[in-house]
Predict the 3D structure of the following.
Amino acid sequence: MFSKSCEYGIRAVIYIVSASKNGERVGIGEICQNIDAPEHFTAKILQILTRNRIVSSQKGVHGGFYLDDYQKGLALIEVVTAIDGKTLFTGCGLGLKQCSETNPCPIHSKFKSIRNDIKKMLEQTTIEELGNSIKKGKSVLKTLKI
Amino acid sequence: MFSKSCEYGIRAVIYIVSASKNGERVGIGEICQNIDAPEHFTAKILQILTRNRIVSSQKGVHGGFYLDDYQKGLALIEVVTAIDGKTLFTGCGLGLKQCSETNPCPIHSKFKSIRNDIKKMLEQTTIEELGNSIKKGKSVLKTLKI
DNA sequence: TAAATAAAAGACAAATTTATCCTTTATACA
DNA sequence: TGTATAAAGGATAAATTTGTCTTTTATTTA
């Protein structure tokens, strides 16, 4: 469904929001330890998100990543689109380039409603909401150690 | 959503069903021309499907691929599972290995209903049904030439 | 202003997916 | 029975995705 990059990206933003109290910044090392993701690779994904102003960052001492109030309110679809593009919501299920309403692939209409559901779900879910779920201990972002 | 392999595989079986009249066999060359797919690569995918008894094949003169009556009635999920496995229906949206009802990722429940919808759709759609849609000219399997 | 810190960025490597080519095997039919 | 045909299978290559390492840039603070 999502690429590995996107999975890491989503987990990272959720962790940042869940971990930074009062605008405190979170370092890439801490982020990756807490979401079980490769550090340098995830750093590059966060670079994409900062360039797209979905995440904020600060270099130097006490630097790190954080989300301002506006960014916390962003929907998950912003993260997904920045990393994986819009193919998941707009592309043909069978990979046809010219699939459309007037020139549909055999699963076009059935696929369309699923695509729309995915899109709707990602539009209606905010980063903050998912961060709160982590804060409250209602969900996790990494495999539990035994 | 689906891998390229799976897209080719689905398009191939639909074409075979739509093109083979009275159990006639369809060659890999004809298949690939009509679904815009690389021949040798698609051949390997059809090998997977024949090994899984989703498609039938015959070597030699007048050989090729075809689907018997039972196979035509198979649901699309058989094709997808044979090629891409069950990850799409069972895997975690954020890629967590131990995501579950009792140890959910932040989007677990929202994702679950979408996964189920995809599964249901693939279970309810038969290869034959899609082949008929092509036969009737109601849908296409390749980009139209201008 | 210099040192320490942490993100940004560039270069490179591994792994996986996608694609191609060549040989082998099975089948039909002349 | 031999030849043509077409799928099966093996080996290899290209492309993309994922992952790592090193250098550069910006910022804080002593």
